[in-house]
Amino acid sequence: MEIVYEDNHIIIANKAPGEIVQGDKTGDTPLLEMVREYIREKYNKPGNVFCGLVHRIDRPVAGLVIFARTSKALTRLNEMLRKGLIHKTYHAIVQGIPSPESGRISGWLTSNQRTNKSYLSATPTEGAKEAILDYRTLRTGDRYSLLEVNLLTGRKHQIRVQLSSIGHPIVGDLKYGARRSCPDGSICLQAHRLQFTHPVSGKEIDVVAPTLTSHPLWQTDPGQ
Predict the structure, then answer these.
(1) pLDDT 10s digits, 76-95
(2) Stated pTM of the model
């Protein structure tokens, strides 16, 4: 686990692909517990250490996750998240080269809990939620492209299903049309950057994770 930012009220961790953020039926140790143990050891805090989960990212996805060290910060961060005041930028390595090289994808998403999969439609259907994102191509290679993705809405598997819908599934994402999996079971999607106003101090927070061009797969398909 890599801690990329911390103060008295918040901690931002860089999650590795394959880690779970919150406990589930697998019984694997979640990132939430790793951060809690980190706080306990670093600050020599006995007993039950407070660590609040602000948001999650999917297990095969890498990148930045915010945790709250105080209840005040957690309440305010949850409200900021609800109002869209925490800006998240993603990087994705996708199959092929998008044309146009930048654009907006919009539609309506429904989620099937049984299959743990989301479905996109062009028109509203019962239970569907509007999904909008903007993308732009940062680099291209012979087989893959590196995209920057900005979410205007936050829906389950939104980036994964919407990039697949334009014919450019995320590398390794078999669930949404990738040709093959990555050896470690990850997908080439990363929560790359977080920008928000600190919920207590009011200072501007801007945290960036290492770019996906460091991914071993990209080294075999270098940018043009």
Answers:
(1) 999 999 999 999 999 999 99
(2) 0.90
